[in-house]
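User: Let's play a game. I give you a shape written as tokens, and you guess the letters that built it. Ready? Here's round one.
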């Protein structure tokens, strides 16, 4: 089935980076927009991140895509979250069921919103490989357009069943936590400049860019959404979102560097 592609492109996550510090969030957003980032991922689970994102985006919403989430055990609560998001952002382009919470209950009303043209795509997310079987069950209903899941050179469980399934069903893939989550464990102990040198021809100058490009070079992946509280890193990460993409040999090289 044909996938309505979102990318390949680098977006911006907002977990733990857009909540407490609104002026800080604005400087990160300024840098991300200047670097060409247009897709922003959030959730009601991320404290005040949605309202900070909306405030920082004020006057600059046109041309951007909001991917946010419903994280609620009941339809009433989910609808209340959605109405708040519509106040923040005007509309939501990609509405995802966060961590599969009550996904069967939320699907019908989200589909109504999509049919009415108020949401472009409906998605479902989970960060834990232990929940991949349920994520797979959800996708097999053929009612979701997008799945958000983890994938990085050291965390590859989604390659076994979910990525092939997403490709088969025409579901777009958003990759969360590309650096292994808050604190970026995958980026500790970065390879040396000499070790990164073979990747320079691919526009890669830093280990973070190598990891992001490894993710986006999987043709089944549409979007990767690293989070940062530092404007310079928002620009660094965004720069990994354009070709040339890595081939199998370069991807294997990045995997070896990650394991070292
Ligand atoms: N279940 C779900 O749906 C779910 C679960 C998890 C995440 N997500 C989404 O995915 C997004 C990303 O995941 P994440 O926030 O868990 O983790 P992540 O993006 O893997 O890592 C974030 C960490 O990486 C650091 N970092 C960012 N860019 C860097 C760079 N160029 N060099 C060095 N360090 C860098 C950041 O530190 P600094 O702030 O110091 O730069 C931050 O501590 C979230 O924000 C959220 O939008 C969704």
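Assistant: Ready! My guess for every position:
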């Amino acid at each position: 089935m044909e996938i309505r592609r979102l990318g390949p492109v680098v977006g911006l996550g907002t977990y733990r980076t857009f909540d407490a510090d609104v002026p800080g969030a604005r400087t990160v957003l300024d840098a991300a927009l200047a670097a060409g980032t247009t897709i922003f991922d959030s959730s009601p689970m991320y404290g005040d991140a949605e309202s900070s994102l909306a405030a920082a985006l004020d006057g600059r919403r046109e041309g951007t895509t909001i991917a946010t989430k419903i994280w609620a055990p009941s339809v009433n609560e989910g609808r209340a979250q959605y109405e708040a998001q519509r106040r923040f952002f005007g509309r939501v382009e990609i509405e995802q069921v966060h961590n599969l919470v009550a996904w069967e209950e939320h699907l019908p009303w989200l589909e109504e919103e999509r049919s009415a043209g108020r949401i472009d795509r409906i998605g479902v997310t989970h960060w834990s490989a232990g929940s991949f079987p349920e994520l797979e069950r959800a996708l097999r209903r053929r009612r979701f357009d997008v799945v958000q899941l983890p994938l990085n050179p050291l965390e590859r469980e989604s390659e076994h069943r979910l990525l092939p399934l997403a490709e088969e069903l025409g579901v777009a893939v958003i990759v969360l936590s590309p650096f292994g989550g808050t604190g970026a464990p995958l980026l500790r102990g970065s390879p040396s400049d000499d070790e990164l040198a073979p990747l320079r021809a691919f526009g890669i100058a830093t280990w973070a860019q190598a990891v992001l490009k490894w993710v986006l070079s999987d043709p089944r992946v549409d979007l990767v959404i690293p989070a940062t509280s530092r404007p310079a890193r928002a620009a660094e990460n965004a720069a990994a979102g354009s070709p040339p993409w890595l081939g199998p040999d370069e991807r294997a090289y990045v995997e070896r560097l990650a394991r070292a």
